[in-house]
From TrEMBL:
Subcellular location per the Swiss-Prot or TrEMBL entry: Cell membrane
Major place of residence: membrane
UniProt record, GO biological process: purine nucleobase transmembrane transport
Positions of transmembrane segments: 24-48, 68-88, 95-114, 120-138, 150-174, 180-207, 214-236, 352-372, 378-397, 409-433, 445-460
Topology with respect to the bilayer: Multi-pass membrane protein
Entry protein name: NCS2 family permease
Entry GO CC: plasma membrane
Similarity remark: Belongs to the nucleobase:cation symporter-2 (NCS2) (TC 2.A.40) family. Azg-like subfamily.
Entry-linked Pfam families: Xan_ur_permease (PF00860)
Keywords assigned by UniProt, alphabetized: Cell membrane, Membrane, Transmembrane, Transmembrane helix, Transport
Species annotation: Haloplanus ruber
UniProt key word Hydrolase: no
Entry annotated with the keyword Cell membrane: yes
Amino acid sequence: MALSDSLSNYFALEEHGTDLRTEIIAGITTFLTMSYIVVVNPSILAGIPGEKPGIIVQGYSPPEVQSMLAVVTIIAAATATLVMAFYANRPFGQAPGLGLNAFFAFTVVGALGIPWQTALAAVVVEGIVFILLTAVGAREYVIRAFPEPVKFAVGTGIGLFLAIIGLQAMGIVVDDPATLVQLGAVASDPVAIVSIVGLLFTFALYARGIKGSIVLGIVATAAMGWVVANAGVVGSDAAGRLVAGGPSATYDITPLAGAFVSGLADIEAFTFALVVFTFFFVDFFDTAGTLTGVAQIAGFLDDDGNLPDIDKPLMADAVGTTVGGMLGTSTVTTYVESAAGVEEGGRTGMTAFVVALLFLGSLAVVPLAAAIPLYASHIALVVIGVVMLGNVVDIAWDDLSYAIPAGMTILVMPLTYSIATGIAAGIVTYPIVNAARGEWDDIRPGHWALAAAFVLYYVVRTNTLA
């Protein structure tokens, strides 16, 4: 039997109304739309001593750490997507998620001061919890434990959070002692000028529906910066900021792999639990929401609007997260960009299999991750952040029981630079607002318990900081 026939039979292509050629094209399409993560995830997770929080490995330069993270990103994405292909037989691509990687670097490592090894341990613990809950079929119980308006608002809040991180890296938004933030020197700062041109170029490609538009935009912006830096039209300081630190690259991931084990020592239980909770919350509901949305496009949903056997793709996510944390990256999730492949006709795990193979093939371009400057890679954060704002339409703004908790989640998240604090604001607000409106039937004991836990945590933490 030919390989093509074996694949067709294994993935039941005929039963799903598709063929091998369609699935391959769909897989290529999905990979092109999400491949930016190979460059962007390392740029977010890698720290720069004295400049940016994140993973800093003694004895290795930031570009070398970025290349390590690129390798880990690829392996984690390929592992999760292979599980999606062969276990779940669904056409969904997976990789370390935007938002949670920013939470990892800027909030957990940066604001909370938790060692990156301990942050990885939290990712691994979250992944194991996810695996156990999925294995026992506890998805419905988990979903009921969280207020619905908070679940709907998290995506929009993360979009704003990503956008402000990206705009800061690009020099478009800068800090101000009086107003906290203000517009940067966009007419005189070469980094800001190149960033704006690159961002507008990327938006244009994205609006035209060009496959791989974000990757093209990132590479074009980095190339533009290199040309300006070497054209002699800017000073040496500006030229140094326009190009990456150097082409240093390494495929040796041993400094990252297994680092979570040392992170389990001397943990502060309550703070560690909060980090695990936040990773789990965002990962679970982001994945469940993405799976449902993309499955709707594919026509997979049943009459009740549910995805049959959703536990299988959720398990792929959980396995990917656990493996990724063990190797050295943040939480893995299902990518909404999978919709691009579904729209091309992808209906089975064969599409995911192609995505996984292409991720493995991208190991050849790992040095590129270290050669892309921060402002260029963070264009992706702004583009994806804008796209994620579309989630706001799912919120019932005419119902104050939804509008207030959702609004607090969305506002607090970017303004405190913390996904966890935004989620906490929504969870604390929800039972209070519903109780005030006399809507007791909508409040569960778990809502009060979560709200009380968050209040206790922030009372203790802010008093400690004070």
